Amino acid sequence: MATMKDIARVAGVSTSTVSHVINKTRYVSDDIAERVNKAAKDLNYAPSALARSLKMNRTRTIGMLVTTSTNPFFGEVVKGVERSCYQQGYSLILCNTEGDNQRMKASINTLLQKRVDGLILMCSTLEGERIEVFERYPDIPVVVMDWGPMLFASDKIQDNSLRGGYMATQYLIECGHQSIGCITGPLSRHQAQMRYEGYKRAMLEAGLTINPDWITESDFECEGGAQALYRLQKKGPLPSAIFVSNDMMAMGVIHAASDLDIAIPEQLSIIGYDDIHIANFMTPSLTTIHQPKYRLGQAAIETLLNKLENQSREPQVVQLEPTLVVRQSVKVK
């Protein structure tokens, strides 16, 4: 691999002159610059990213941790992060924590040792977690995506889950439904709790009764959604509509409804949350709350780079607003 010394020898100039031409750090005459650039091209010279990163104290690399899930929501968010990194001239190192707390901490250590310029964390296990390694790297900006309270300083990108849960339930009410159930995600997680709070707020404002037999907690996965409907069905007559707190569980509910010979939406209306890509291709297509997944990814990178340029600013919360997507899984009474 060619070096600056090789270019200097071929061009007949000093190594420092080659450095000034390559890095554009000082004026060099057009004739000499042309000789240096021609020699660099002939020798297939490529600047050392490692050397440049050591000199600039930047690697132009971002690390991201994601919890394993079958939910394509995460992939759609990562797409926004990766595309934004590319557009800004950064590389992305993606680590999968598989929901394991120790693996998460080991991955954070590895990324920091690789001198990433910043970290994006999308791990449910972070809620209420103290990460001591961040205390040793106070200048590394951290952006946390879509989770609850943290015990370390970070910027935060989130959707307005309280409003989303309220909008979903309010739409069911506007469609004429009065007996409305809710399948929540794990209520230990901030998102799930906020969506449930939105459901309760809409029900109370409308003066509707919240039947505890129509409320069940699940796990944000397809199988969990199916099992949740089986549990509700065993308790007695089902409500006319259910707010399901994410699209993956809604998919499981639709599958279980078919198994139980329950027609959707004729006998049971379903509204989901997230608006994952395949929601439009379910049968029936899923009415849902759109969460701006690609924009979540973009906002994470924008916020991280802003922090890199302004290390002294206080941590901030960027909140993106949900919208309603009407399809065919809710019956209008």
From TrEMBL:
<dbReference type="GO" id="GO:0003700">
    <property type="term" value="F:DNA-binding transcription factor activity"/>
</dbReference>
<dbReference type="InterPro" id="IPR057343">
    <property type="entry name" value="PurR_sensor_dom"/>
</dbReference>
<dbReference type="GO" id="GO:0000976">
    <property type="term" value="F:transcription cis-regulatory region binding"/>
</dbReference>
<dbReference type="InterPro" id="IPR010982">
    <property type="entry name" value="Lambda_DNA-bd_dom_sf"/>
</dbReference>
<dbReference type="Pfam" id="PF13377">
    <property type="entry name" value="Peripla_BP_3"/>
</dbReference>
<protein>
    <recommendedName>
        <fullName>Ribose operon repressor</fullName>
    </recommendedName>
</protein>
<keyword id="KW-0238">DNA-binding</keyword>
<keyword id="KW-0804">Transcription</keyword>
<feature type="domain" description="HTH lacI-type">
    <location>
        <begin position="2"/>
        <end position="56"/>
    </location>
</feature>
<dbReference type="InterPro" id="IPR046335">
    <property type="entry name" value="LacI/GalR-like_sensor"/>
</dbReference>
<keyword id="KW-0678">Repressor</keyword>
<keyword id="KW-0805">Transcription regulation</keyword>
<dbReference type="InterPro" id="IPR000843">
    <property type="entry name" value="HTH_LacI"/>
</dbReference>
<dbReference type="Pfam" id="PF00356">
    <property type="entry name" value="LacI"/>
</dbReference>
<dbReference type="InterPro" id="IPR028082">
    <property type="entry name" value="Peripla_BP_I"/>
</dbReference>
